[in-house]
Amino acid sequence: MKKGIIITLLIAALAVGSLAYYFYQKPVQSLRDATTELSLTSEELHSNFETDEAAANKKYTGKVIEVEGELIEILENSDQSSTLILSSAHPIFGVKCRLNPKDNSKAIPEKGSRVKLKGLCTGFNSDVELDQCILL
Amino acid sequence: MKTIITLALISISVVCTAQGKFFTRNGTITFFSSTPVEDIKAENYNATAVLDAATGAMEFSLLMKSFNFKKALMQEHFNENYVESDKFPKATFKGTIVNLDEIDFGKDGSYPATVKGDLTIHGETKPVETTGTIDVKDGKVITASSFMVAPEDYKIEIPGVVRDKIAKKIEVSVNTELEPLNR
What we know:
With about 140 residues, chain A is α/β, with parallel strands linked by helices.
């Protein structure tokens, strides 16, 4: 009888341990299946941050958002990923979207075209930044 | 006379580009923590940097939440518990090139550079001095440097349970390719 209890406890400990290990090792997930919390144009998003950064941080930062805007610049990053800059009312800055290099089957459209993407808003540094983006 | 004026104008514009400002919005800043238990690396590919070739002033800034970790849980702990990204969303460096007179931004070449300034992380500002290289190539300025940062200096508290997994000194590497700012 005692043996049975010990074996059950051992199995339970093993299960808890491997579950903890699984959560610890879990890689950063793609946003493909993540629910979009907010959807707006790049102009709206940038102007919201320019007007009131603190309020915009509360509203957008850390959220999965969908942004649509004109593609004004394409940057090649040092890890072979690309960052797309979407337009705003500001002459230089806009919405800076780094594409997820592991999850983008779509080709990057040409400069000047309208694009729509989904990404995680990480805050405001002259540009509004979105990371782990997926072209829609 | 016309030729002289044209020549003068050309030389002024050449001087302007050589002495102007350089800018990037996709600089790479990584940090690396190495302990016998675990190596941890995080990368930020969208840092902003401005360099004023005339004065040697340099400014870097990045968003803490744009650091990419391999493990989701680490990224979460980093932002929520250690650097408190909601309260302190940015890290910045403001400094100057100490040996500016040894660098010719108008001439291709590789120049050793020493930079001194203030690093702000987690709302704490500390002086930092580091060496690196500045490469001038085809009108672009490529900077590379690395230095050590102690989380304690920036009041970043690391709980005892994970203390062995995170190095006392973390290596920060900065690699940027700046283009002339024409606006």
